[in-house]
Request: fold
Amino acid sequence: MNKEAAHKIKNDLVQMNKSFSKLEFIGSGNHGYAFKLGNHVIKVTDDSQEAIVAKQLEGRENRHIGNIYSVWKHTFPSREKRLYVIDMELLFTSDIQNMQIQQALSDYKSVWFCRYGGSLRRGLNYWDLCKIYMDNNVSIISHVRDMLSKDILEQNEWYSQILKLDEKDRLKNSLYFFDFIHSVYKELLPVYPNARIDLNDGNFMYDCNGNLKCFDFQQYEI
Reply:
């Protein structure tokens, strides 16, 4: 996906609404394009799962989830098909915040899928992890949180030498992110029980008040 293709998508949007002439292209991914419009992001995507979950979140004021203002489907002549358009809250990250999120997400995945999952005969996949949150299995979540703390403290010497990370900062950051994911699920699942977080570091950013938020969710067919 390139800027030329994004320009065509923008032209299609302008044909629908002249105010979209002020769109600023800010990036693209595997499924679509994102444009800035004031304090909103206009996301054009072919990901039906993301759009379905976003539709359920539409119009809600969220603490841990990027606010979704509207979701609709529109025909894009340049693509010769209908795509989803998601109007959502504009979120931000600095380079330092990106590094913190990447490190915390890496620790989160490692403790769940390698440490805890490695102790299970059949391992742990994304659906298993989501099911733990769906069931609000606090005992397992607390147990894995303790594992995370222990792992970071034991790995401190290696990380401090290789990655130049401070033990206290890393521990605080990773535990905050671990608790944040739990808070996201508490907010998400009552609205859409079959949803799960797309655990990609690009899906976590901060709002204008400095609150970490998550966006881009998938759904499970149960």
Summary: The beta strands are 24-28, 32-37, 40-45, 68-76, 81-89, 195-197, 204-206, 212-214, 217-219. The first strand starts at residue 24 and ends at 28. Residues 3-89 form a domain with the Phosphorylase Kinase; domain 1 fold (CATH 3.30.200.20).
